[in-house]
Amino acid sequence: MVAGLRERKKQRTQETIVTVALELFAERGYQQTTVAEIAEAAEVSKGTVFAYFPSKEDIVFADTAPVCEDLLRQLRDRAPDRSAPRCCARSWATMRPRPTRGGCSASG
After folding, report:
1. Is 47 among the domain residues?
2. With 78 labelled, which of 17, 63, 90, 92 sits at a CA distance of 20 to 30 A?
């Protein structure tokens, strides 16, 4: 099913908030970065940031739910002769780093 315009806009807003927040955390440090600065960089209000993420911590871990779900699925569906650590290692190795704008990525 194709997401409607409203859902796509919400997804883009959430992704923008996460992307700019992670960039600011990398540049300035987590503690030194305020929600107001994140909102300004994402071109949204502080209220919008809090509507998507109840706290700064939630922004940091925003992308982990899909990763964890995929990892759990792979562990559950693995072949009986495949160890859990090996399954996890392969799963982590196949993940692509998130692109950043002018910052560091996990690959370099």
Report:
1. yes
2. 63
The per-residue pLDDT for range 32-86, each reduced to its tens digit, is 999 999 999 999 999 999 999 999 999 988 877 777 787 888 888 888 888 888 7
For 43, the domain range is: 5-60
Structure tokens, 75? 């562990």
First to last CA, the chain: 36
Q: What is the pTM of this model?
A: 0.63
Q: What is the DSSP letter of 55?
A: S
Q: What is the CATH number of the domain that holds 43?
A: 1.10.10.60
CB 96 within 8 A of CB 107: no
Write out the two tokens for 40.
Answer: 């300004």
